[in-house]
Amino acid sequence: MACLDKTACLEGNGIGEDAAGGAPPAGSRIQRGRGAVSNPTGRFEPAAREAVDDGWGEPDDLPPLRTEVLIDKARSVIARNASPDIPFDRSINPYRGCEHGCVYCYARPTHAYLGLSPGLDFESKLFAKPDAAILLEKELSKPGYTPRTLAIGTNTDPYQPIERQYRLMRAILEVLARLGHPVSIVTKSALVARDIDLLAPMAKRGLACVAISVTTLDGKLARTMEPRAAAPHRRLATIRQLSEAGIPVSVMVAPIVPAINDSEIEVILEQAHAAGAREAGYVLLRLPLEVRDLVTEWLVTHYPDKARHVLSLLRTMRGGKDYDARWNERMTGTGPYAALIARRFEVALKRIGYLRRHPRLRTDLFKGTPKAAEQLSLF
Fold this sequence. Notes:
With 379 residues, the protein is α/β, with parallel strands linked by helices. Helix content is 32%, strand content 13%.
């Protein structure tokens, strides 16, 4: 059924602030191996569609939702930002969308810019940038380029399953290694271990570090929350592999979802440290734009008895709102509950023996700027 008023459609789906804790909204169906339970229309579309139960019933099992990969003919690959609360000013995303299917992913709303849904489309309709390494080398070789740590994995995971086929991350690392450019990687995939042969020599020169995201050690929770990401025990094993190869590795306890995984903070830190992680950080669950409704649907579907409580706790940490995007507060929240999480994290880091501050990656080894003779070679 078509709906011309998107706001009315969202309210009609029963996923508004007051509806959490009831029955799953109409149209919510669990797709095996997928995180989102619906495919809402993107916020820029002129019309939205609302699923309505007509009483005829539907089969219990939906057919598998296949992953589609389209080519993104990007003109550049380095994205820049001036956010004061993140430790980098440039990043690369070799893929748009992410097959890991993490329901909480704050990058989901970016699919709306492509005319697609931040729901199931985000994790099944993906875009690859096959020219990423070529474009990167061109950008790094421009006269006047100043090297700083390049962050990869800050939006979508560079080691998501399709990387096995496209190998874009591998090609990017080959460029960075050859030019002596520093890189920081965030991933929740064990596939990063494939590139130890590149990362270990870079790390030895002070050019690379890796952060592994560990959301939970509960396999069942991981399968519903981030269905196509590496299992928790594989992420710990990956931390060990990276550490034994001499690559500085940290653990990100992210996102922390109150009443869902916040009880695991200390045990995650303990096991990650035992595996070789020496730095750690955390991020409180963020609910920007469509992510709010997707996470609410997920909670009502998988944790109906906890949904209202979880959202209530989140609002106490967001000034009474579902989300507060202010810098220096969006990552950790405010209020007593947020302060308690911060204090628990701080005490655990000190007790377990994590480093307080990691050494900066080197930029003095960069050799990407062409020599004057090379710049004039076309003439």
